[in-house]
Specification:
By secondary structure, this protein is mainly α. The protein has one domain: Up-down Bundle (Four Helix Bundle (Hemerythrin (Met), subunit A)). The protein has helices at 5-25, 30-33, 44-66, 77-91, 111-130, 134-137, 152-180, and strands at 142-144, 148-150. A hairpin with a 3-residue loop joins strand 1 (142-144) and strand 2 (148-150). Helix 3 (44-66) packs parallel to helix 5 (111-130) and helix 4 runs parallel beside helix 7 (152-180).
């Protein structure tokens, strides 16, 4: 299949998001990835796990939705308007309650395993979308808990903005860690 510039530009941005996140947390001792600022608040690893399960679950949904020969409606203006609303929420630095499907995050046992799983999922997602026919990429193959059905390009846009949104959360956790000093 011929390269898709619209996919490629999104993968470049996602790779940049990943590099920024890894640079932000580079050098942290393992115990600091598990530190939580307060009861009921997430650790850095829990934030990363939330991002991971959002992407893993999205990939699984797209695979299920695009398997077989079923007809999938093409995404249109209404889908785009819903995406724009979701994007506005994500680019704000406001704290949002995660949708229930990805909100209950257990403590992470192995940080390195989480990172490997995340990288493997990204690679698998990239390969899958690159091999997906164009009419499937532009169809309603992704379902967001709040915005509803979107196309594969908007799924990647969601990943980008979701990642950036949670980078601010990790920065807040790290700032709280510095203030605590005994971590």
């Amino acid at each position: 299949m011929a390269p898709d510039p619209k996919l490629e530009e999104r993968w470049i941005l996602l790779d940049e998001c990943w590099k920024k996140m890894m640079a932000l947390t580079d050098g942290l001792p393992n115990e600091q990835f598990a530190w939580r600022p307060d009861e009921g608040q997430w650790s850095i690893d829990q934030v990363l796990y939330h991002l991971y399960i959002a992407e893993r679950g999205s990939l699984e949904y797209v695979k299920k939705k695009t398997s077989g020969t079923n007809t999938i409606p093409q995404a249109g203006v209404i889908n785009e308007l819903k995406w724009q609303g979701l994007k506005r929420a994500l680019v704000s630095k406001k704290k949002w309650k995660a949708p229930a499907i990805v909100a209950n995050i257990p403590p992470v046992e192995d940080h390195e395993e989480l990172i490997r799983d995340f990288e493997d999922t990204r690679k698998e997602c990239r390969e899958y979308l690159e091999n997906l026919p164009m009419n499937r990429r532009t169809a309603e193959v992704f379902k967001h808990a709040l915005a509803g059905r979107l196309n594969a390009y908007r799924m990647l846009d969601f990943f980008i903005h979701h990642f950036e949104h949670h980078r601010y959360q990790i920065e807040r956790i790290m700032e709280a860690m510095k203030k605590k000093k005994d971590v």
